[in-house]
Design brief:
- By secondary structure, this protein is α/β, with parallel strands linked by helices.
- It has eleven helices and seven strands.
- It has one domain: Rossmann fold, CATH 3.40.50.
- The longest helix has 18 residues, at about 20-40.
- It is globular.
- The structure holds S-adenosylmethionine.
- S-adenosylmethionine binds next to strand 2 and helix 7.
Length: about 240
């Protein structure tokens, strides 16, 4: 068996996640297309089989615990880049997720479309948009928003909270040591109608690197003035 699949099996089993051969094949196809396209334009710095298996795919699956309780969700991945964490979650729970991947860079969106078509993923779309513009058509439409490596918590809260329904959740995949970042986001989260309901510290199962999964529930509607115009949330975070 190839090293990528071996590493993926090892890592996911340590998280208590069982992957079928069909899923492993889909993960591997996603990986192969990513490496191929990465030769033409920059998608990721992590390309070796072992590192990508853990730091992209297993890392994305860390969020599975947070969505396991739902039987069916409309989920958005904001700033999905090469498809993380949205695509691995979809591959792992194909029947339970209707997925929208969003990125501001068109090349990345074309890459995502290519992967969706190659893997024949149903109920999966990729949209070229800035997160701040998504609220025009998708305000309070999603059950769940996920995001990884797009910005600090107070910023991504403004990108994601307006898009989810009251009672829905926003799951931020973060690195280690995020206490201060969480404290700095208190005003933003409250203003946008959210409340932190869980902060789960994890270790990646092979490299032992620290990760934090922050879950925010939307408890009130987001005031209509948020999100602000593209670029403003980043320039002047709440
Ligand atoms: N989530 C992926 C991952 O973890 O591998 C990609 C992370 S990459 C560092 C950040 C991505 O967010 C980029 O693809 C970038 O184009 C996208 N991005 C940044 N700001 C954005 C915004 N306001 N709206 C949509 N996408 C954005």
């Amino acid at each position: 068996m190839n090293k990528f699949k071996e590493e993926l099996i090892k890592g996911s089993l340590k998280l208590g996640i069982f992957l079928t051969e069909d899923m492993l094949e889909l993960f591997y196809s996603h990986y192969q297309i990513m490496v191929e396209e990465n030769n033409k334009y920059n998608l990721t710095a992590i390309t070796s089989k072992l590192e990508a298996a853990e730091k992209h795919f297993v890392d994305s699956l860390l969020l599975l615990k947070e969505i396991e309780k739902y039987s069916y969700i409309f989920m958005v991945d904001i700033g999905s880049g090469a498809g993380f964490p949205g695509l691995p979650l979809k591959i792992c729970r194909p029947e339970n997720i209707n997925l929208v991947l969003v990125d501001a860079v068109n090349k990345k969106v074309n890459f995502l479309k290519k992967v969706i078509a190659a893997l024949k993923l149903e109920k999966t779309t990729a949209i070229h948009a800035r997160a701040e513009e998504m609220a025009v058509d998708y305000r309070e439409k999603f059950d769940v928003a996920v995001t990884r490596a797009v910005g600090e918590l107070r910023l991504i809260a403004e990108y994601c909270l307006p898009l989810i329904k009251i009672g829905g959740i926003f799951i931020a995949a973060k690195g280690p040591n995020v206490k201060e970042e969480i404290n700095n986001a208190a005003n933003s989260i409250k203003t946008l109608g959210g409340k932190i309901i869980k902060v789960r510290e994890e270790k990646l199962p092979i490299s032992n690197e620290g990760r934090t999964i922050v879950t925010i529930e939307k408890i009130k509607g987001t005031p209509a003035k948020y999100p602000r115009r593209p670029g403003i949330p980043k320039k002047d975070p709440l």
